[in-house]
Amino acid sequence: xxxxxxxxxxxxxxxxxxxxxxxxxxxxxxxxASLVTLSISIFGLTIFNSSGYLQHQCQWxxxxxxxxSVKLDGMGQLLCLLNAIAxxxxxxxxWKSSYTRSHNxxxxxxxxxxxxxxxxxxMDALLFYFFWELALIPMYFLCSQWxxxxxxxxxxxxxxxxxxGSLLMLIGILFVYSRTEAHTFSxxxxxxxxxxxxxxxxxxxxxFAAFAIKMPIFPFHTxxxxxxxxxxxxxxxxxxGVMVKMGVFGLIRWLxxxxxxxxxxxxxxxxxxxxxxxxxxxxxxxxxxxxxxLVAYSSIAHIGLMCAAVFSENSSGMQxxxxxxxxxxxxxxxxxxxxxxxxxxxxTRKISDLGGLAQKAPVMAILLVxxxxxxxxxxxxxxFAGEFLMFNGLFNSLGSKYSLWFTVSAGISIILAAxxxxxxxxxxxxxxxxxxxxxxxxxxxxxxIALGIIVLLIFIFGVxxxxxxxxTEKISVYILGExxxxxxxxxx
Amino acid sequence: MNALILSALLGxxxxxxxxxxxxxxxxxxxxxxxxxxxxxxxxxxICGTVFFKVNTEGLMVFDRYALLFNTIAYLSTLIYLLLSxxxxxxxxxxxxxxxxxxxxxxxxxxxxxxxxxxxxxFLGIEIISIPLYILTGSDKRNLKSNEAxxxxxxxxxxxxxxxxxxIALIYGAxxxxxxxxxxxxxxxxxxxxxxxxxxxxFSMSFKVSAAPFHFWTPDVYDGAPTVFxxxxxxxxxxxxxxxxxxxxxxxxxxLHARWQLFAGIITVATLFIGNITAxxxxxxxxMLAYSSIAQAGFMMxSLYSLNTDAKEGLxxxxxxxxxxxxxIFAVLIKxxxxxxxxFNGFAKxxxxxxxxxxxxxxxxxxxxxxxxxLSKFFMLKAALAGGGNLWLVIFAVxxxxxxxYYYFRVIQAMYFKDGEGAFIQxxxxxxxxxxxxxxxxxLLGIYPELLFYWIYF
Lengths: 492, 457
Known about the structure:
B: 457 residues
């Protein structure tokens, strides 16, 4: 029941908001709908936390062997929670931004939320593909309609990139399907599908194309900075906070357990590219003068680490990734909120034009510093636990001969992250004010609430990460069990 | 059988109505009522009520597949008439005759979908083609229309010649026109049979505008009056495809391994040429002509794989493709400017029409939740089921990604580009029909069993 509601409420809420023409009304309606979704997500973690409530299956496309099967497990809980938290925060943070034809804007936003919920919940490959695409279509419209100057071309590039990726994944899904015993799309039959070594490599690349583009992993990342820069900020927050997690999520749920042998063998290559991407993105981030692009490149670096940790294939790396998916989402939304406030006040995102904001807007400065420190994973902030586990996993990876080198080079990118993040804080918030920043006003109440929630979450999960670790323990053991080579070898 | 006789009768009735009635509205009324009757008669036949009992053994067989396709074709035609019948007035003065020709074409479609003998196939194709030549040239004072008609006629006649030649060779090799009997000659097929089969493959490829036999398509579709392009590019093409797969399944199914490579090459060429050329078009009408070639490439996959999935999927494909293309054309007909820029700012002026057009375009591009996705899905699934055709499938998918480029250009123009927004007259009825059509596409996209149920129930 809970997973169905998680999909249905944003879906219906989104459809309804197309008909509310008043901007204020539609904003309140969307906030209300997203709060309902959030409370259901929280109920799913607390009161209704039993398997009877957490899964649902009904018939759909029976002749094909597909069914509408959704289930909340630990990883799903975490990501749905992230998705559910992100929306009210984003709506509050952008309360002041005005959109033309706002009913369409908010309607599409909620539809995207429904799509992403579906991705995190699907236990059927075809259903997964449906939602995977459905999350993308509203994003396409959102970015091309309400984005910046170069929005149409940039969004189109983004769309074509991801569309090619998902079509290749579709072939992969069809291929595995044709090899399943019962000819069904259910996740269990996908995990049990017997593929030869050659077929595993093939399926690996077909699936990986979709996930690598979505995350994005170097060298498939070129759509990302442009899209983040051009998209309306509220959409960027969702894109980078929640949507890119779909890629990492896909790796964990649909790649490792389905083609364990190929994942094991190709893990080194993927990790290499992920780490090249981390360092590369961090170096570019240091050079950026545009706040949005800086955050975008920093996101590539963080996602790269998650990807590398997934392929370390041990429980520490796996759990760290799951936790970090959640925490990174929270942190990056926080960063975007600050960027949004700055851009709205000064009409510029150029770091060189800003300076001395801390004198005039102390609250904003304090909140930003906290978010920024979380972004570089300082202990006692939420990202620390996840990053520590991921590094631990990467270092102890049994499958790779190069784990030490991977860990060291990934570690360098963390240092680089500190460089660009702290540099950004220094240039934007400290130093002398200039004519532009003289007239700054501190954050408004809605933004304060939004950033307050973010900071609260940063501290809660920084001090008490055990909650997240407990939540993800079972599922990571399960995934690793399915991804383990041992039982599969026996079935051959 | 019901529909076959009724459609011929209706053609005659429409011919006389042109003489007896001067009022265009009542002519249109009769045509639409007749179409509705035709649809009902056909559905009755599916349910087992046959009014005309004629022994057609060895010539035609009205099986579920044929009847179901007829239903799709008639339903599409009904929707087409509801949307665009009024716009036919603009073409010329012979209003009633246009309907006459359309009913005759439907008669031909009924023949091609249910043939058992090559003769009936030939008859059907000719009954479809000849009225089409006339419809293409119906805009008499337009040079482009005349050119298109002549081109179509000459090339069409040529391919018909090829087809007849093929049929003659096959008859020479096997001594029969009946597809089931031809299929028995698989053990050591003579050169005559193979040659005849290839000639049929080529001439049918011509009729469905598969590359490299597609050269007539863009010019003819572009030159013909847009109302008739809509009909030609959708219902007629779908019908010929059904005939195509029936022929090669029933008559040459046992020789599948021998012609599969040819089908594969045609598929790849069609997908490539259709999609790549469509990218460079400046006129939406011409883009749709190339898109119809591209979609034919996808439908060719069903011929390539030739299994149950392929045949079922083709039915869904014809429905999805016809519905979506008819919808887009219905809007396009009402525009004055056929270029992409003509659609600039369309969403602001006509939000509902823009929204439905978007759904049609998404369906053509194969985005999930639309019938277009599932139909492509079936084609890919069918092609993969054979095994070893992975590269063909990957190629098809990449081409589908290319198709997004030109379909989305229309969406971009409608929603994201600034412009005046063309003023078009759209009655509430027109809008309602489009909404129903869009709903139908989404319904089929979520629940295709609605259609497949009828094949087997």
